[in-house]
Amino acid sequence: MPLMLRLATMLERMNRLIGRGVAWLTVAMVVVTFGIVILRYLLDLGWIWLQESVTWMHAAVFMLAAAYTLATDEHVRVDIFYREATARQRAWIDAIGTLLFLLPFAGFLAWSSWDYVVASWQVHEGSREAGGLAFPAMSLMKSFIPATAVMLFLQGLVIFARCLCTLRGFEPVTVAAEEEHRGPV
How many C-beta neighbours within 10 Å does residue 84 have? Predict the structure, then answer.
């Protein structure tokens, strides 16, 4: 069991690191959007590539931070039963939900997006707008889709491993608990 927990902790740390890194794009989006507004309304200037960059940063934040959101338990949850459940009952709910919904969804997302992404790379897809971001920006953004699926799948495995530990009577130490003990990184 400890090997499984060490692997789960390593995977969760990776998802948290990526999530924290991508979160900084929200600051960049604010700065770039502010710049776009100033350029447009004060100087009557505008560049499509700059406007597209905000959209693409937004896509990166939502897609690449999905597993981070799941890891930090900040995702949307209907807690009709969950909030009153014991730790063992929560482990059952999380394990079943992960096996029935999260892992199949992540697998389907990876499988269904693969040809879409490969085609984008094969044709050296760029922006449809004149003056927009050029290759490989569009292909790279589309590559976030299967990357999101893989990261969600891995985080699902982490959740499932922790559920198994709880159901077997172990108290798994989470990355969040380690960070709280150690202080902010």
Answer: 9
CA distances, 146 to each of 48, 131, 159 (Å)? 27, 27, 20
* Residues 6 or more apart whose Cβ sits within 8 Å of residue 104: none
Residue 36 to residues 42, 56, 88, 150, Cα–Cα distance (Å): 10, 15, 51, 34
Element housing 110 (H / E): helix 103-122
Q: Please give the radius of gyration of the chain, using alpha carbons only, rounded to the nearest integer.
A: 20
Tokens for 158, please give them: 């982490």
Q: List the chain domain ranges.
A: 2-182
**Is the predicted pLDDT of residue 176 greater than 60, yes or no?**
no
Is the peptide bond preceding residue 136 cis, with omega within 30 degrees of 0?
yes
Q: Which residues contact 5 (CB under 8 A, 6 or more apart)?
A: 161, 162, 165, 170, 172, 173
More confident residue, 104 or 139: 104
Matching residue, tokens 């090997």? 3
**Prediction pTM value:** 0.82
